[in-house]
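Progress against Task 2.4 (sequence-to-structure conversion) is shown through the following example record, which the project officer requested during the mid-term review.
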Amino acid sequence: MVTLHNPDTVVAPASFYSQAAEVGPGKRWLHISGQVGAAPDGSLADGFEAQSDQVWRNIGALLAAADMTMENLVIVRALLVDRAHLGAYREIRDRHLAGHQAASTLLIVAGLADERWLIEIEALAAAET
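Structure tokens generated for the chain above:
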């Protein structure tokens, strides 16, 4: 399905992700918009870790709606507002991905659209047609 690449001809990943992810022809693609730590009722989780867990629950729900799982993720792009959250982000990401090493990009930004948001993640997934 998703073939992950970490050749020794490039630097090893900085944490638990892959340098590249390949998807063959004839696949369905799911583009997941940036998810924040808001629950379905609109309430915002309190604190970075709670917001991060909610983001991943939102991503899981969107994947499930498309008959996909975390293993279908090709790439994850995360935006954090504080570099101090990097370690927690990686730990929470790794727990939710449960061993799947999707390609990954991480950006530290000055702020997100709502100043209460501490993290936003967008993702791309693919599955068999």
